[in-house]
Give the backbone structure.
Amino acid sequence: MNKREAQRCIESLRKGIPPDKFIRLFTVGRKNEIGDLKMRLETGEGAALLLKANYGSGKTHLLKFIKEEALERGYAVSYVVIDANSGVRFNRMDQIFAAVCRNMEIPNTEGKGLRCFFEFVIKNLTESHQIYDAITQDWHWEHDEIFDSPAMMIALRAWNTNVEEVRYLIEDWFYNPWNYNSQRKRLYTELIGRLQSYFRDQRPDWKFYNEGIFNFNSKGYEQSWAALRDLHMLALASGLEGLIILFDEFEDVIINLKRVDYQEAAFWNLFKFYRGKEFPGKTFFAVTPDFYEKCRQALMNKKRYDFDYEMLKRLPTYEMSPLGIEEIEELAMKILFIHGIPYDWEPDYVMKAKQLRHLVEMAASKPRPDRVRYTITNVVKVLDRLFEDWNENAPGEL
Ligand SMILES: Nc1ncnc2c1ncn2[C@@H]1O[C@H](COP(=O)(O)OP(=O)(O)O)[C@@H](O)[C@H]1O
Ligand SMILES: [Mg+2]
């Protein structure tokens, strides 16, 4: 690790969490879980998994661990935080699709979003690929067979023209598809009509409107699911291992979705991910241990006795216990070591192992759910202070 990277790590650890790309380096314990998760990434099959742990026990950390590991293994990954209050509702598959697009990440590429993904796909499709034909040549019936979502084909084909305004429009459309239900004409004009010099699409405009081709929320969000499948398909076609979606804060569906019919719809979407037919990639969901019980309560309170609770109970889950003191100490040792890199000092010379252990024990014994995070920030704080003293007393300096 170079100085700049180490500096970035320490800055992030001051707030209690390791930075992106260094999650694995700052991961301790969880040997079984990690071994098992790595195995899951090795098979190409789709699957869904609930990661269960209490607040502060490392769900987000583990999801980000999976993200790093998956990117390294050549998957496209989208990390999505469910939040009904800011427009990421799990009953609304159009919002979920949009969030997946916004957070899309690609191996060895800075940044995230649709732009990264489409550019990667276009760069890596070989000319012999039938998708390449579909987006570069005139429209034929067969082209619709390749994509499950006609909107995805239209978007990728228009993207491929390299017209910058068109790209902005496509980003805005996929990031906020619900805003475009009343702008079908504009989408037709900008993405098809005006681009006739690049490709020809003989279908008249009314056909697009009649068939709801620009619409992501009709017929049970049919096209939102189809577009998710296409993202996975495009990832595979461009040489990646597929698309993995990580859903954090999944409890949100019980806490922030106020209407029972919305909650039920959200549970059905969860089942669909488990069933794997609607989306063939891998998905992970972070929930607290009482998730099942809370769901049951929420539905019971609203008198939904006929809902199949057993289905919720049967979902494959992974329970994680909190980190032990030994593991937290191991983490503290890593922080100690990294702290020396950007500031050119020798923290282990000033802070002895015994002292560090004491510090960890003090912080980690606090009866607070976020004790790991609290310990991390404390360790960095003490190191920062010791470094200041060291600097003050350094001989021969100005
Ligand atoms: N296996 C682990 N190794 C190192 N640090 C971890 C591990 N699991 C969690 N942490 C740290 O513990 C703190 C709480 O974890 P977090 O993932 O935010 O919990 P949750 O999402 O379950 O509330 C964070 O500072 C995180 O970096
Ligand atoms: Mg979390």
Q: What stands out?
A: Residues 59-60, 248 surround magnesium ion (ligand 2) (CB under 6 Å).
